[in-house]
């Protein structure tokens, strides 16, 4: 699904990523843990094609990212990669259903196809009765589920989540974690999750620790 080899990233004198290898397959959840400032977000941004590595190779869905122009890359990203952040980043003027649909419009999909897909996700994520609400009218847990639905709308191969439960209380965090497991089991969804949450890290299939520019396997 995704393979990264020897990823290096420096900011001036600071080597944030010092030769990272990383792979993930369909239906896998991988957690990345480590101290603040270790480079977890930087790695996530590079693996998600939001940011360039200085050197290294990134292959997603058998497609090498190298040499793709900006427009091609952003189309590829919109189709193949979903993102969930600590703060949901939903557009306040749009309803839940409209927010979920945005990446599908960007991908140029047909209206009927989009409507059906949004409906399926609202059901799957148990937010059907919130479809016409705007983000401010939703609870924190509901907002985050809408953000997850938006990340899934184009059936991406992989979803990157940066502290997805960092802004939720423990009940909503637990529900979100269960939702990730359900999406892995039912859709075969792959997730790479940066988290400080021990329970979330524990339910991943594999854990990696980011430290001193390197990524190590954790039991
Ligand atoms: P983490 O997500 O593990 O907290 P980050 O990836 O956010 O770590 O940051 C790793 C290090 O890289 C930090 O020291 C941060 O200040 C630095 N850093 C991140 N982005 C930039 C940037 N655009 N320019 C300069 N330094 C950066
Ligand atoms: P996170 O909380 O997810 O680790 P940050 O708040 O560290 O994210 O970073 C937010 C944005 O600011 C990122 O795009 C990152 O690349 C950038 N950034 C982080 N640290 C620095 C820095 N020291 N100099 C410039 N940009 C930075």
Brief summary of the model shown:
By secondary structure, the chain is an alpha/beta fold.
Q: Would you kindly provide a written description of the structure presented here, covering whatever features stand out?
A:
- With 219 residues, this protein is α/β, with parallel strands linked by helices.
- Helices cover 37% and strands 27% of the residues.
- It is built from seven helices and ten strands.
- It has helices at 40-47, 70-80, 96-106, 111-124, 140-152, 170-187, 198-203, and strands at residues 2-11, 14-24, 29-33, 55-60, 63-64, 81-84, 158-162, 190-194, 206-211, 214-218.
- A six-stranded mixed beta sheet has the order 6-7-8-3-9-10, sandwiched between helices. Strands 2-1-4-5 form a four-stranded antiparallel beta sheet, with helices on one face.
- The longest helix is centred in the C-terminal third of the chain and has 18 residues, at 170-187.
- It is globular and about 50 Å long.
- The two termini are 23 Å apart.
- The model has no long low-confidence stretch (mean pLDDT 96).
- Residues 11, 16, 34, 36-42 line the site of one adenosine-5'-diphosphate (ADP).
